[in-house]
Amino acid sequence: MDRSYLTPEEIADYTIGTGVKKANRTEIQQFMLAILAGAFIAMGAIASNTAIHDISNPGISKLVAGAVFSVGLLMVVIAGAELFTGNCLLSLALLEKKISLYQMIKNLFLVYLGNFIGAHYQSASCYLRQYHRRLFNRRRHLLVYF
């Protein structure tokens, strides 16, 4: 009978193999994928907050927020982006001596910094879009009166 699941040992081996692949990526690959992941998570958070803005029922708003935010996580998984929380599992590869401590710390630093930059870029661009929209509406409003 075929199994449609992995045993815990197989999951650990797969996680270690993935950790080795992530640690052996170039610095620019790690950093760019981390920026993407930060932007995707920020997009999910912004969309989640936007979706629940006018929902007064707290239970429904939490349900909608969770459903919409998970789209950001799905984008991270589909794109193969580097999210800091997932890269913390590099510690398994370190414990099995498949990667060095330097590789793990370098990866975690680059990914954390990239996630930070991606999330802040996304939130800044959202803010600036709203700012320019308000500025444009003011100008249009002034043109009507002048």
Strand content: under 5%
The radius of gyration computed from the alpha-carbon positions, rounded to a whole number of angstroms, is: 21 Å
**Helix share, percent:** over 70%
Which sheet architecture does the biggest sheet show?
none
According to DSSP, the number of beta strands is 0
Q: How many structural domains are formed by the residues? A: 1
**Unreliable stretches, pLDDT < 50, 5 or more residues?**
none
CATH class: Mainly Alpha
Give the CA-based shape. flat
The mean pLDDT is: 90
Architecture, according to CATH?
Answer: Up-down Bundle
What is the CATH third-level topology name? Glycerol uptake facilitator protein
Number of helices: 6
Name the CATH homologous superfamily. Glycerol uptake facilitator protein
Q: What string, H for helix and E for strand, traces the elements in order?
A: HHHHHH
What key phrases describe this protein's structure?
single chain; 146 residues; mainly alpha; Glycerol uptake facilitator protein; 6 helices; 0% strand
Structural commentary:
The protein is an all-alpha fold. It is built from 6 helices and no strands. It has one domain: Glycerol uptake facilitator protein, CATH 1.20.1080.10. The chain is flat, with a radius of gyration of 21 Å. The termini are far apart. The relative contact order is 0.17. The model has no long low-confidence stretch (mean pLDDT 90).
